[in-house]
## 1
Amino acid sequence: MKAEINEQALLKGLANNDTKAIELIYKNNFKTVQSLIINNNGSYDDARDIFQEAMIALYEKAQSESFVLTCKLNTYVYSICRRLWLKRLQQLGKFSNQIDSHEEAVSVEEDLEFHLRRNAEFTIMDRALNSLGEPCKSLLEGFYIKDLDMQALAKQFGYTNADNAKNQKYKCLIRLKKLFFSQYNIGE
Amino acid sequence: MNEDILMLQTIERYLDGTMLPDEREYFEQLRKNTSEIDQMVVEHSMFLQQMHGFKNRQNFKHSLNGVHDKLLAQGVINDGEETTFKGKVIQMYHKYKKDMAIAASVGGVIAVVISGLFTYFSPVVSSNKLQQLSIEFAAIKKNQQVQGSIINEVKSKLPKNVNLISGGTGFLIDAKGFIITNAHVLKGNSAIVVNNEGDEFNADIAFIDTKKDIAILKIKDEDFKTHKSLPYSLDKHNVDLGEEIFTLGFPKNDITYTQGYLSSNTGLDGDTSSYQIQMNSNPGNSGGPVFNKNGEVVGVLSSKQIQADGVTFVIKSKNICSVLDDLKRDDTAFSKLKLPTSSSIKGKDRKTQVKKIEDCVFSVKAYNRSLK
């Protein structure tokens, strides 16, 4: 019982991007995942990649309030990694559906689907941002991602005042939205 | 266009709750009556959510990498690369497993061999890896101490009581004092550059792009004498596999020459913006120019693969030029920047080339100036 409470607290910390929580989950799980992947035709870099992707999936799931773990956290992380790695291997055409593992795993299909959908959405956003060109891209990133205020941005980009920068930001935003929705509505 | 902006601005204010009650009521009425506006609000709110999610993910990735590197440095996790050997054996095992229903005993033998291999290989390899890492750390530390002492001897232009945070190499791309280097060389908010003779010059960080890992410094110092012209040019063309290349850099306090050859037209994981070269590079080489045999700059040395010997990555000149072109167009501070167009050291022997280039390559040292 106590362990369960701890794991819920850990998930809450994770949802808030708390480094301590991330570190703890990392410590408890990375090695297992690393040996899974290295024993199945992967490298250290693959392990790092897959593990971090699973962490992102967990992080984004943990942010929705309805998310409840139905198994031990370790099992969950392991299962996600296992599925992600199988998928990767299939994409590379290296392997069929068999994977060598000694740990218990649960079905995570639904959560994985949610994650892949999110991935697709963020890819669209990333692409839209990158095809904007400068200074639009950095301006919008500064405002929406780095949370800088208009005053600071105006100074950084050399606009004479915050209003001009703001105006420019909106112009850029209109372009970004157009790019984003043109892809988003097609649905990848 | 202006109306669009106004509308967007209004919707943003409505969504972030900064509207006054009266205005809000009016706007809500407007939403009810005009389906287009209603649609715009819904759409924008959704867009902002996407943006928010995107931002969170970026930040989280950042935390993840931080944690990974920290645990790696502490030795809690390790990059036991060589253990991939087991992977291959197991794969082989899988391949033949089907046939082994017939000859189960063979499976037993292979299993014994595998476990033998595990115990034989894994412990030795991982302790090796860890040791290497610590040597590297110690070496860096020592380096910094040496740098510190020399800076104290000659009157330094560094403000008192600041510690150097990071360092590397940089080189002139415009005789007026524009220097290009890697963004990761500049971990602090201020920088000085030092030439081969040990003369220091204050420099402004004029531009930094951490994603492309490119940064530009502008020397702002009375003591700096502008060069008449630069001996080298930037070559945007792809280099051929096997072509000989060389670099000058500051892995220590004196300028150091290293040579190698181009081993791949793509960088790590097929990254097309970089080359892979075979060359021994050390901390401090980052940001250095990489030349072809004609003395043209083909790229900026940026990183090396930890698990492999001498595998070094170079950001292609083509990418640097495109960044610079954008800058020249969009930013008035750079509009006068003129890239060198021809190499005057083409066809000269290597010693002469290096002599000419030397003066244009600088050691870059970054520190944090308190912004009081």
## 2
Amino acid sequence: MTSLNTHSDPLILEMRSITKEFPGVKALADVSLRVKAGEIHAICGENGAGKSTLMKVLSGVYPFGTYTGDIVYQNEVQEFKDIRASEHAGIVIIHQELALIPELSIMENIFLGNEPTKRGVIDWAEARLRSTELLARVGLREDPDTPIKEIGVGKQQLVEIAKALNKSVKLLILDEPTAALNESDSQHLLDLMLGLKGRGITSIIISHKLNEIEQIADEITIIRDGKSIETLNIKADGVDEDRIIKGMVGRTLESRFPDHEPKIGEVLFEVKNWNVGHPQIQDRLVCKNSSFFVRRGEIVGFAGLMGAGRTELARSVFGRSYGRFISGHVYKDGKELQLKSVRQAIDAGLGYVTEDRKSLGLNLLDDIKATTVSANLRKISKNFVVDENKEYAVAEEYRKVLRTKTPSVEEGVAKLSGGNQQKVVLAKWMFTDPDVLILDEPTRGIDVGAKYEIYGIIQKLANEGKAVIVISSELPELLGLSDRIYTIFEGAITGVLDKDQASQESLMKLMTSARKSA
Amino acid sequence: MNALKKLFGGNTRQFGMIFALVALILFFEIFTEGRTLTSGNVINLFNGNSYILILAIGMVLVIIAGHIDLSVGSVAAFVGVCVSLFIRDWGLPWYIGVLMGLGLGVLIGAWQGFWVAYVGIPAFIVTLAGMLIFRGANQLVGKSNTIPVPTDFQYIGSGYLPEFGPNTGYNNPTMLIGLLGVAFVIFSEIRSRRNAKKLGAEVPEAWVMVLKLVLISGAILYATYLFATGRPGTSFPVPGLILAVLVLVYGFISSKTVIGRHIYAVGGNRHAAELSGVQSKKINFLVMMNMSFMAGLAGMIFVGRSTASGPFDGVGWELDAIAAVFIGGAAVTGGVGTVIGSIIGGLVMAVLNNGLQLLGVGADLTQIIKGLVLLIAVAFDVYNKTQGKRSVVGMLMKNFSRSNEIKADETTQTTDVISKGA
């Protein structure tokens, strides 16, 4: 193992002034990254800061020529034209969404695209032998013939690493590897990374979990708004979480949110003893006896790790659009509602802005005006005939109110930036005039300026007397925006904190542990 | 050079298709030495293809919703034979027979729609099964025989508009329809322009509108002239009239109504549509049911035209209809397509067929050419999607987006088509 803290360590990777533009957005501006051989290098930054984009540039997902700047790897300037080329050089990236095929076995996945052959025929005996060995190295005790879909996310992560090791990886990149893992799986993974470091494998880890970074990383590069801000040596510079946050945020937290004076009224929306089963797996609950309420004019946050069941809760309440309904009650203004379909939920005054804009929230073939009216066509129709003049007028009105940046409302939504797409989705739900609006990750993949505007819109909706629920993975966002925050862990609500009691630490504690007190 | 590019560089497949259609017609007009644009030939072309075009209307909705229907030929044949038997064996009047045929189409559609929408079996499988089932059923109930239909039933497949009014030397009802068509096109264009202006939307320059109206009106009037001056006893054919009405009705439904929007939404992104309150199962059911309803209608028109129903009616129709829809700009993945586009696509194929026949090209070579045209048309569109420049033609077509201000007869010539993405 190379010693740390000296500046003479050879670099395995240097990315020099990388700039990458998407239509209308500069995702990376002059970013530099220097990674020493044999270290664990962390990359930190807020969502949308450009971390994943940088790694996609490195791994050839965005091929040479689509960015400017140089990638120097093992002392040579590299021009990766696809992922295969970077893998060939020993750079393997493990994405947040795992690239495993659920129907295939562990062994088949490990060797996918890299099958050992003998005279052109796959040598399964050899594959079995090697996969057993690889699984031992990553500490996974499973039969190589087990289908991927039958093992948990934590183990799948290990299979990905085994797959990388099989490709004789020299530089391993992990994008949010522990985001979906529980504590013991996370710890196992971190130990494994330290073990790999011991064998001379360099790792780059992208993570939001600053305590983990502090625990395993040697150096850390902070990226903010598409620019590399600084590179710190954890030990030499005595870096702690506060120091990292300061670099990531680069400004006081308060200024990220518009001023807001909440006007909270009586309870408007309430869900009691909500139980929902997993859509495929029998006997598994995604919502366990959850109860919560929202008052008029209140913004209520839902905090939880990925996979904790926040989205499942929201979608099952929203007209049972997810999972198998088992039991529970929904009340609005004290009256119980029967919401068996999305249509009923919308008619009852509920709105749900989806987490995944592109696959669930938008029809990317549509234009802005058609999207704006799509959840409330009746309002602009007479005898089932759509009044296209009204459609245009409505879309134009929301374009102005929300300040959507577009040449015209006849533009296709696919051409808009993330922030503007989100504004169109918000317009769509505002046009249904809901009393209860659920926003699932409303600022994911949106740049900072647009976030500020979206926060303003959310606060304005609350001040109009709507009950607003915000689901978010970004704790600072929840802390800045919400009047009250519920925490969810493994499908159950584990606590609720008022704005002034809540902190990242107190929330994180409730988000990662089963309910202790009522 | 640049100006030429501007004029012809249409940015959607449908603009390309209109030009392909016009070019094809001109090409055949020249090489058949004027035998293409004669009254007799145009009337024939319409009579011989109306049932495919009707299928294309139903098929484009199915494809927009993200499905496919392989059973239409068999369903058409089954409905055709049943109606022939109803009339022959039960002595029913022809109009009762037609109503029963339509009802049977709806029933068959409900059967297929049930499997697709509520059981969740891919339409490809359901209708592949339907293709076998209803072909077999056709031959079973018809005992693989030819079953003749009475003359009054034949009117829906081979009749013409009657003569009435003063002797003008033209067929009066045909002329009337043509003039109404022109008036309608001009009126709706001016109205939509005024509305757009009122809302402050961007409108093309006045000369663009005038040029567009002159081209469309000219095309309609020329088509009217051809239909109205055929040999005595012929005029605008009844199947053409049925087609025109269907184009208007379905063009309107698909572009202007709530259910039309929902069909596009389900095909474009089913999950997003469901989370916006669209009942996607109901939409899928209706779209599949409608397709068989129209297949039934097409089957009856064909039987009317060929004076009898037979065991091999409708073989291969599904492929012609599907080809028309894709040439007309629909996407295999759903969410994209227009009724008008599909009609244009169907006419491209029809004109090609007809012209090659007039030139004496054999059926073997004709098939090869049609196959290549389908391939090139789609390739052209894929290429254009990566360009996406606006052209003069694009501006001409802009206001007709998703619109249906059209009469079937004018589509033979050129005209107003449009696209969702225009």
